[in-house]
Amino acid sequence: MTLDGALAAAASAIAGMPEAEFAVGLAEVEEEYRRRDDIARARHAAFVASLQLDRAAYELGCRHEADGDLAEAARWFRVAAGGDHADAALRLGRTLDRLAGACGRAELHLVTEAAQAYAEAYAAGYPEAADRIDEMLAGFAGRRELPREPPERCTHVRELAPPNEVLSDERIRELSRHAARCITCLADFVALLKSASAALPSGTVTDPFAQD
To answer: I need a labelling partner for 55 at 20 to 30 A (CA). Which of 15, 148, 159, 190 fits?
Structure first.
């Protein structure tokens, strides 16, 4: 029952009360209304506070990125991206991509995390993220020490993620860990993320606790 419905029901009950009990019943209804209103306001305040944290983390990430401290930039962009703040996911993907490049792309977990961040950015309305994934994979595949055509292609990701299946966060993390160790599954993992993100709704973040 909605709050308006509860108040209407209480009002009907109060109307049938003896006059002596009327004031007491009305006071109880008003107290309950204030209590629920306080809860709604607290939730709204928490939501606004979370946006402020995301904004602060985003600004810290930008400053560290400008200073060339990519590891710290990635750390704060992760926080901001967790709250879907601005283009934090896109910046996180770009920062991790640069970190992976600085390591000679030896750190596969950076590549897979960058791919996931790019996919989230794509879902949030940044179409250029898809191009960045393709560019990152092209650079990764171009490493001389990697075989052009592996003798036996691993199918772990494709087997655990059949088409049109909704994947849980736990399953995505499991596939990400495998892709971070398996070169042949990396492209399958990235394609999976791009496909999943393309199906997600995009748009601005709305406050579910805003007062009308």
So the answer is: 190
Which of 71, 86, 101 delimits the end of a domain? 86
Distances in whole angstroms, Cα of residue 174 to Cα of each of 96, 157, 179: 19, 9, 9
Spatial CA neighbour of 140 closest among 94, 108, 96: 108
CA-wise closest residue to 105 among 136, 133, 81, 127: 136
Separate counts of helices (H) and strands (E) for the chain: 9, 0
Domain end, chosen from 34, 67, 86, is at: 86
63: CB partners within 8 A, 6+ apart:
none
Task: For residues 190 and 117, give the distance between their C-alpha atoms in angstroms, rounded to a whole number.
Answer: 10
Q: Where is mean pLDDT largest: 14-23, 53-62, 130-139?
A: 53-62
Report the distance separating Cα 65 and Cα 149, nearest Å.
36
Instruction: Report pLDDT for 69.
Output: 93
Domain hosting residue 51, numbered range? 1-86
The answer to whether 10 touches 22, Cβ cutoff 8 Å, is no
